[in-house]
Specification:
The complex is a heterodimer of chains A (about 120) and B (about 375).
Chain A lengths: L11 H7 L16 H10 L1 E4 L2 E4 L6 H13 L27 E2 L4 H5 L9
Antiparallel strand pairs in A: 1-2
Chain B lengths: L1 E4 L6 H7 L16 E5 L1 H27 L13 H10 L5 E7 L7 E6 L6 H15 L9 H12 L7 E6 L3 H16 L3 E6 L4 E2 L4 E2 L8 E5 L2 H4 L14 E3 L4 H5 L3 H8 L9 E2 L9 E5 L9 E4 L2 E4 L9 E5 L10 E9 L7 E9 L9 E3 L1 E3 L1
Classes of the chains: A alpha+beta (about 120), B alpha+beta (about 375).
Chain lengths: ~120, ~375
């Protein structure tokens, strides 16, 4: 069979613009750009997301990411920005977990390949 | 095979976003419906047959690598070998893969590479271009049964997934995140319980990999390369934890460009293959040097008599392969590469659809445009 009979997606469309509630959004990616958070992220080499610190490799100064975002928007791209509080520094830093579970053991190589580049091909 | 200029749908951005393609425009447009490719049914038959044949050949090549322990030749670290061999023996579930083919509608398709472990552009191929077809040419056809094949395969795999559950993880990136969200959608439509989260939220509790809620992970689909996982901090737990990983570790053999010269050794002068070598270009006049573990057109050298073209990047540490340069036919000055999808591994019946990516030059990169297709 070469032809799809019926394609119904039940969660993808809804997830497209609301996945910010479930997934961490890089403030320097054009599609999830947050001006203040991106400046802080470039300066500090990472950002807080929902209270946890995520180190990132940003290879360029902030204006590069801002210009990429502006080009993206001028070409009709949609931006899904998380509220600024999502990037807020917590009163007490809470990396890892209190349950004896280690986290962050996968994903570092992909983060090192630059903001927003993904790992698929 | 023809490239036909077309008028994009009014408000096409909203339409593709509604189908989940929120990354349709980067610095340049990624989704491009200002043109489409038209194939004949006979051409689609050729592509389908080639895909099924290449699937059989690549599985034989994986067996050859294991039988002859060619791991070091492919830059595969020792720590990964037990994972590869045990997963090959156990035959755990595998979901999908994508052959990138050059094709001009006249000569046989040629395998450029096999994205066996972490292929993307699935949502575009399975859903977004299908909706485009329904809007623009509802009476025409498309080589695309990806969506229902995925749902059918999940149903088949359900007995192998502990508790009828599959979790999904990826880098925290819009494209990868939406790709696994789409797969989650198909799994749920097949009746599985599913969730998705960023891969860096996977935890290790001393005995098991656990999800963000500390629940042990029975089966998880990861859109993240095995060659990175085995080298990262939690890579040391992969051999002892009981988690079922999809794609399975043996896919490391096929996503490695080293499989190209091995295929050429096993099937010399096969019509679907380009000459390839570990040891240099030999007598090839025009060739492409590719990193063994490169991604998205990075660190490629294209050599033609009198000129070299190189792309940047930080791959190549594990070595390179040399592949005869495919003669990509230009269509209106664009160079299409066909991504032909496999869903499952049923012999002779794995080909499930395709997507077309076109570039302004002979190297397909992560900025190459996705262009829909039809066939009659």
């Amino acid at each position: 069979m070469k032809k799809s009979a019926k394609v119904t997606i039940t969660i993808v469309a809804a997830m497209g613009l609301t996945m910010c509630g479930r997934r961490r959004l890089d403030p320097c990616s054009p599609g999830t750009f947050n001006e203040m958070a991106c400046q802080d992220a470039v300066r500090n080499g990472g950002y807080y997301w929902q209270g946890s610190w995520f180190p990132m490799t940003y290879s360029y100064p902030y204006p590069y990411y801002f210009d990429s975002y502006r080009r993206y928007v001028s070409n009709g791209g949609t931006v899904v920005s998380a509220p600024g509080r999502s990037y807020g520094r917590p009163g007490v830093s809470t990396p890892g977990s209190s349950s004896g579970v280690e986290r962050g053991g996968f994903g570092s190589t992909g983060s090192g390949h630059g903001s927003g580049s993904g790992a698929g091909e | 095979m023809r490239r036909i200029v077309a008028e994009p749908r009014a408000d096409w951005q909203r339409k593709v976003e509604e189908a989940g393609l929120v990354w349709h425009t980067g610095a340049e447009p990624y989704w491009d419906e200002s043109a489409f490719y038209e194939f004949t049914a006979k051409e689609i038959d050729v592509l389908e047959a080639a895909t099924n044949e290449l699937e059989k050949m690549t599985l034989a090549a994986a067996q050859h690598v294991i039988d002859h322990r060619l791991y070091s030749k492919m830059g595969i670290p020792d720590a990964a070998i037990p994972l590869i061999e045990s997963s090959w023996e156990a035959e755990p579930p595998s979901l999908y893969g994508r052959f990138d083919l050059s094709y001009d509608g006249i000569n046989p398709p040629k395998l450029l590479e096999y994205n066996a472990d972490t292929p993307t552009s699935l949502l575009e191929a399975a859903v977004v271009q299908w909706y485009w077809l329904q809007d623009v040419f509802p009476k025409r056809d498309q080589f695309n049964s990806l969506h229902e094949r995925l749902i059918a395969l999940w149903k088949e795999l359900t007995p192998y997934l502990p508790g009828g559950r599959i979790d999904f993880c990826s880098m925290d990136d819009l494209e990868d995140g939406m790709t696994v969200t789409y797969l989650q959608d198909t799994a749920q439509q097949a009746g599985l319980v599913a969730s998705s989260f960023p891969i860096d939220e996977i935890g290790w509790d001393g005995r098991s990999f656990v999800g963000p809620d500390d629940r042990p992970l029975g089966a998880i689909f990861k859109l993240y390369p095995w060659e990175w996982m085995v080298r990262e901090e939690f890579g040391k737990h992969l051999g002892t934890a009981g988690t079922l990983w999809m794609e399975p570790p043996w896919k490391m053999l096929l996503s490695n460009k080293g499989i190209l010269p091995i295929l050429w050794q096993l099937y010399p002068r096969h019509p679907y293959l380009l000459e390839a070598s570990f040891d240099g270009p030999g007598l090839m006049m025009s060739w492409v040097k590719k990193p063994m573990l490169g991604r998205e057109g990075a660190n490629i050298t294209v050599h033609q008599p009198g000129k070299d073209l190189e792309t940047g990047g930080d791959y190549g540490g594990e070595g390179f392969v040399y592949q005869q340069m495919a003669h990509l036919k230009s269509f209106d000055g664009k160079y299409p590469v066909l991504g032909s999808w496999l869903i499952g591994h049923e012999e002779g019946n794995a080909a499930g659809g395709m997507g077309v990516r076109e570039a302004d030059g002979p190297i397909t990169t992560n900025t190459s445009r996705f262009v829909p297709h039809v066939f009659d």
